[in-house]
Amino acid sequence: MTTVRITRTALTRGTLAALSGLLAGFAALTVAELVSAAVRPESSPVTAVGGAAIDRTPAGVKDFAIRTFGENDKLVLQLGIVTTLALFALAVGVLALRHRRTGSAAVLAFGVVGAAAAVSRPDSTGAADGLPSLVGAVAGAFLLYVLVGRLTRPRRIAGEEQTPGKEQASGKEQASGKEQEAHDGGGWDRRGFLIAATAAAAASTVAGAVGRALNGRSAQDAVASRNAATLPAPASPARPIPAGAQLRVPGLPPFTTPNDTFYRVDTALVIPKVDATTWRLRIHGRGVRRDLELTYQDLLDRPLIEREITLCCVSNEVGGPYIGHARWIGVRLADLLKEAGVKPPSRGGKADQIIARSVDGMTLGTPVEDVMDGRDAMLAVGMNGEPLPFVHGFPVRMLVPGLYGYVSACKWIEDIELTTFDAYDAYWVKRKWARRAPIKTQSRIDTPKPFGRPGSGTVMVAGVAWAQHRGIDKVEIRVDDGPWRPAQLAEQDTVDTWRQWSYPWKATPGGHTLTVRATDGTGEVQTEKRTKTVPDGASGWHSVVVTVD
What we know:
By secondary structure, the chain is an alpha+beta fold.
């Protein structure tokens, strides 16, 4: 019976030690959240470690995450980080039961890792970014040391203290039993542990709640500045979208993508909330005769252009969803560069690359020639009739029609530096993506869906095609291995927008493969060759397999 009781006690202590580790980890994160409110929200450990993980993830793995999890890739990463921290905390708690100081030291070491991740981020403001992780780790290590101490501290038993002359316990076996019970924790401080653990859990919860509230308050000024923003009427408005640009075919996406469903692909674990009243943009660098510093109001006071532009992410697989269309309003970027004295390389300019920097440290490299060749490249301030949503770059983002987003569409932009491709590699180029990335001619079947079961007879096959800044001249459909048939094109808005198409298919019972290809405005036919998204965008024909009943 004594052996069974000792074993059960040891198991209980082991479980509570693991719980102690979990509480210590929770305390470390919540205290760090509280401290980050005094530094900046991006310095919290989960955000810092997650950002560092994104920075160091190979392009292929990152592309797999986007392809597999879509816009939930960051949520999956954060859940993975929290799960890893929880498992680490459980293991450290068990370790601390036998090696109390070593367990606490492990918590401190993890804090050092978090601090190193925070100060190594591209948007780091300095050593202060490491403070939340370090302070949180100290709090967690101290709590673990205290809690495990309650599990190893012998309990004082009534009557155990002997008075002079009282007979002592006799026999080697009884003494040995007491020594074994003490070794296995038979006398640990249950009451003291429960009090300390409960108090720690409550204090940690309060610290985390206060930290989140303070971090949320820091974004209130940004929210207020967006609510107060009023977009002026554009000096150069977009022409109305032709009535025939939207085909009335069930299953087709709307020609204009609503803001709340517009795709989002970026590396920001925390969406930057930038106060437009304090925002500044600097234009400087090679070939700039006069540096410019502009406020948000400065941009609104300038002549604005309004344009219909379709954006596409380079991570979009053949037939993928990462493409959307919106009406954008902003300042023509070429005009700002000319005002700063910048010339394109074709006219003797010293710089051939624009490095756009966002407030979260992201850098994108764009050819100067493309920005200044007459296309509607802009610093956008509005999207579909309202100020940019925070998730899409408020207060200002950059757009260059015809280029994939990773070389043109810098959100939350705050700096434009003129340089050369030889002198500087932007964020994605350092990760094996191409320096130059014009959007490839692509097409997609939106209806019928893959593995659909349409009825026999006339089935409307429809979708979209795009080749921004070149336009779409023709779309063709092939059924199984039959000949290519021309699809009916919707009316084209501009060469910078996608184009809808449809084809009335005389469907016969059985399994069929439908394939689409497009021809752009230069006469180039979409290539059949399948390539992955890395290094400069996917290519190939999109096909769907259906079974006709």
